[in-house]
Amino acid sequence: MPGGLLPGPYAQARRRGHRLRSETPVNDRLKDELLELAQEAARRAGDLLRDGRPADLGVAATKTSPIDVVTEMDIASEKLVTGFLLDARPDDGILGEEGADVAGSSGVRWVIDPIDGTVNYLYGRLDWSVSIAAEYEGETVVGVVAGPQRGETFHAVRGRGAYREGAAIRCRPAPPLSEALIGTGFGYLRERRVAQAEVVRTLLPQVRDIRRGGSAALDLCDVACGRLDAYYERGLNPWDAAAGDLIAREAGALTGGRPGGRPSHELTVAGSPGVFEPLQRILEDLGAWRG
Fold first, then answer.
1. Is 115 labelled a binding residue?
2. Confidence (pLDDT) at 99
3. Is 97 assigned a ligand-binding role in the annotation?
4. Any known ligand binding at 209?
5. Half-sphere exposure (CA, 13 Å, Cβ side) for 169?
6. Residue 50: domain span
7. Which residues contact 37 (CB under 8 A, 6 or more apart)?
């Protein structure tokens, strides 16, 4: 199965010669423009967040103060990104975590997470990111994930491969599932966390180990560059995964949701070929999409 090809009916349709939405033609000039804008917007937002974070944010005197500051930084980052992009391309659509929702008329929509990994940002940890994806006619064609505290930016353009700091990256060769390092994440609601903990309890003895990074976008990029063999999570929104999903697929990983489906709020799975499908089957059997 070629890297980046979704399993199930999507692969079958391609073999039968059906035209998929993922094959919508996009000219190279537009891809280049969207990539340049996404990279510059992510750089500006990353600088704002890194340089504007109060040094004592994680040890503020009250519980509400740090959360309020993080919310303000989230909103400021999204305003910076959306303002920059719409100044350059005023007819584009926008979907952002902090409420930006513009329909647009150009066929291009930007999907933005201004801080992916807000708890990490609150505590001064390194694993938070700015995630920006550009869709054309509903399919992601450009993805940029900037990790300012890591000092690295990932990007991908559909059909051109994936890159970290300008160098090409590939996912790891697939080990047996028992030797695979798996990333995951947890929701905020208690009931969901209880269900997710039960999945981890059963999955952990079947793999090498499990990591919880705290930024879905960076976890997907870590699959892309070989720092993880696979990653899964329930409860992701489009802005959490749009850019990272493209980067992972362009690096040779497979992505999907429940068997035969695309990544969704129910379940997102990404992994090296050979790890992806057995992990996906186990997650289906464990009901990782419930709760």
1. yes
2. 85
3. yes
4. no
5. 30
6. 22-169
7. 84, 85, 88, 89, 134
